[in-house]
Amino acid sequence: MNSLRLLVPGRQIALHNSRSLSGIATSEPSHPNVSTAIPGPKSKALKAKMDPIHQTPSVKMFVDYEKSFGNYLVDADGNQLLDVYMQISSLPLGYNHPEMVKCASDPRLITSIVSRPALGSFPRHDFPAMIEKALISVAPKGLTSVQTMLCGTSANENALKTAFIHYQTRKRGGPPRLQDLESCMTQDQPGTPNLSVLSFNGAFHGRSLACLSITRSKPVHKVDIPALDWPIANFPRYMYPLEKHETHNQKQDEQCLGQVEKLIEVRKKEQRDVAAVIVEPIQSEGGDHHGSPNFFKRLQSVCKKHGVVFIVDEVQTGGGPTGSFWAHEQWNLESPPDMVIFSKKMITGGYYFKEELRVNEPYRIYNTWMGDPSKLVVLEKALEVIKRDGLVEKTKNVGENLLAGLQKLEAAYPQQVSNTRGVGTYCAFDLKDAKTRDQLIEACITEGLHIGGCGDASIRFRPALVFDQKHLDLTLEILNKAAKKVF
Amino acid sequence: MNSLRLLVPGRQIALHNSRSLSGIATSEPSHPNVSTAIPGPKSKALKAKMDPIHQTPSVKMFVDYEKSFGNYLVDADGNQLLDVYMQISSLPLGYNHPEMVKCASDPRLITSIVSRPALGSFPRHDFPAMIEKALISVAPKGLTSVQTMLCGTSANENALKTAFIHYQTRKRGGPPRLQDLESCMTQDQPGTPNLSVLSFNGAFHGRSLACLSITRSKPVHKVDIPALDWPIANFPRYMYPLEKHETHNQKQDEQCLGQVEKLIEVRKKEQRDVAAVIVEPIQSEGGDHHGSPNFFKRLQSVCKKHGVVFIVDEVQTGGGPTGSFWAHEQWNLESPPDMVIFSKKMITGGYYFKEELRVNEPYRIYNTWMGDPSKLVVLEKALEVIKRDGLVEKTKNVGENLLAGLQKLEAAYPQQVSNTRGVGTYCAFDLKDAKTRDQLIEACITEGLHIGGCGDASIRFRPALVFDQKHLDLTLEILNKAAKKVF
């Protein structure tokens, strides 16, 4: 840490003053430092500049990414924020990790960007090696194949397509026949089947039209957009601590699973079969709702029984934040899920799939870019660091302390804070209402802690895998200070 | 050109022997050079290596992107191919353009990759400047705002969402009401409206479920995938040369436009309004079908008359290949299209939109990444080169010679070649059947020319903007040689 400490009235701050020749920061400040309102005057001026040429209504602040480092985001006004939200949980190693920055000199990176391949037809000669070294090295147990895509949404879209193709191929006993190929051009049966995908209340799977049809977390995502008429089951809503509410929680599992099976049976009778069930290990955007290992095991059984593809959407949970590389590892399933979706911390989108889900005909799962090898170059490096430094195990340990700290907060404010929950650093708690939640987020950022909300009235923690005990100590200190102010 | 010329029996070849210290090629071979079958043994071995871990059925060959340069692709077996297909028309300046390669030392590039922003909420402090310098500098006349996305499909998905939001907002006279927000969560009206998008037979707009519903080029894209029931009109099918078939061609326009208007009226009566019409300037994947300026002018009028959003999908035509930066510039529309979609040669996906299409509420047009600023760094440089070197104008001129050369081919083989057509280097011709087309493509690649097919029996030219007269001369030489062999 190469920083200059100054004493200012009432508080010790660290001026962040360590940058490489390229202008990219090389170390973390020791402490947050907020000197303006957030957004500050520079962020506001930039928003005014951007507004006539690009939509801006969701912009919170502008960020100086060259100055940001590790767990600290530096905004356009120079405010240094301890960031436990990390670009919506998408940076595995925080900002400007020095070993990832070194990728700039890897010729594979620049060639992949300047001479970007149409990967489905003309991949790089080292693409098989890149996939093996990056994606296959962390493949969920039992899943040996992967398909890269551009983001979580395109991964989900193509996973659903794969499930439909699989369902129809099995039903026919082979590839499409002439009548399938002909009828699909007018979108008639049998070529355009009336299949559906089952998802859950509270789910978030992306924002394309089909992904919105399986997303049920917030009206703002869905309103005014036409949708596919696909079935929705309830997802468990547990009370915490779990051990105190066993009866309620088990009943939740029963009810939800009963609903899933009934919906599959009804749709089958109506000849609009459910081809796939898609589920998040933890409904994140929807409010950090967890399902029990038992719930997921039995959900998989229901899928197997009815020949339905079982898809686990690990876009937000994947890559280590829950204390295991994949959240579903903690369920001890008898056999792997049929497909596992990833993006965010995995830097590239894509999905792992079981051998029987492989699509054998060319150009069915296809598009121009099919992913981006430049992202694999960076992911390869990130995974190397994650493994070398034991960051998943560390996240598990720091996460236990985070959860304990939040439980203390709940004990101190039982009228305000409830349902403290989490695995790894993937923790959350509920406030009594949205207004209080938003006030608490606001009070935190004023003190230099950048934190995210989710669901109706929850706060979620999504730090990077480089979030250490010292960052946790600061996080809890600021959170308690903010709580004191708001409650 | 720093290459070593050798004399070998029967043919002069150039060994491509010019690479920078980083291992990235810095100059073009003077001539194609094919020494193995394509795919060659190395490509085949790589495919066998990749097959167990990643889907491979569409893979044609593996490419050595570090060795490729300009208009020449070098495959894993060392074959040097003159490439007029250019990664499905997606490389604006061919392979490893030296000025784009220099972007590797731009700190904005590496920071954007390693510390990738959630652009919708926390953009880079220089993002407004990046948008202005890259995307706004080439905005279609009359369109002053842009929204970045990741690819053509995500751009189209979000353009459709924007059209739906616009249509409903205008209908209501304001943002969603409580009943809209509530009903959309169960996908009931009025929150989930029964709106549709009109597209055309032969169209290609991407491969997500919604984009497939407006795509009607080939069964392989659509079969087994459930679809939205949206209306389809015919797109003109002209005969060439245009001046010889005026009556037929005008009748095509009439019939198609009549169908569009009728479909809009019928859907309105059925209370499932058409909110948007989406159309390609040239149906590319579908077989390089052109529409006349008059067709598009009148299509825009029909849209205006019925309050339907007019979307021009320039994913393949945009960025200069037709001899104008945007193909629709050649229509002389009275007012700009409501939205123009781009991707491929534009390096980033996205869409330009009219001011009244702006979505004012936050988180409606949103996702985690919302594009990728690293792509803007590279696009900025590519556009600088395109403007400085007058590459669009040059493409127009070289394109005229390409078209003349193809017309000569048609004149030489009137039984085999028909409907030679094109603007800029965006040229195509038809063969008598798919088999002959595929044989011709095969014969070309054997001689070192990498060319693409489209539609049922067409060949399309999609060279980069650095395709010069010398490359054209070689192209026509090889094409004529291949034709002699096949016909």
Automatic annotation (TrEMBL), chains A, B:
Catalytic activity annotation: 4-aminobutanoate + 2-oxoglutarate = succinate semialdehyde + L-glutamate
Biased composition (Polar residues): 23-36
Cofactor: pyridoxal 5'-phosphate
Gene Ontology biological-process annotations: gamma-aminobutyric acid catabolic process
Coiled coil segments of this chain: none
Protein EC: 2.6.1.19, 2.6.1.22
Pfam families on file: Aminotran_3 (PF00202)
GO molecular function: (S)-3-amino-2-methylpropionate transaminase activity; 4-aminobutyrate:2-oxoglutarate transaminase activity; pyridoxal phosphate binding
Keyword annotations from UniProtKB, A to Z: Aminotransferase, Pyridoxal phosphate, Transferase
Region (Disordered): 23-42
Keyword Transferase: yes
Family statement: Belongs to the class-III pyridoxal-phosphate-dependent aminotransferase family.
Protein known as: (S)-3-amino-2-methylpropionate transaminase
Organism: Steinernema carpocapsae
